[in-house]
Amino acid sequence: MAGHGVLLADATAELRAFAERTGIPVITTLLGISGFPEAHPLHLGMPGMHGEVHVNRAIQHADLIIGLGLRFDDRVTGNLASFARAAKVIHVDLDASEIGKNVPVEIGLVGDIREVLCRLLDVVPRRSCEPWREEIAGFVRPRQESFRGNLSPEAILDAIDSETRGRCSIVSDVGQHQMWIAKLFRYQRPGSHITSGGLGTMGFAVPAAMGVALARPGEPVWAISGDGGFQMNMQEIATMVQEGVPVKMGIFNNGYLGMVRQWQQFFHGRRYSATPIWSPDYVRLADAYGIAGWRVESAAGLADVVRAANAEPGPALVEFMIEQEANVYPMIPPGGSLSEPIEGEPAAPMVPV
Question: How far apart are CA 252 and CA 222, in angstroms?
Answer without folding.
Answer: 13
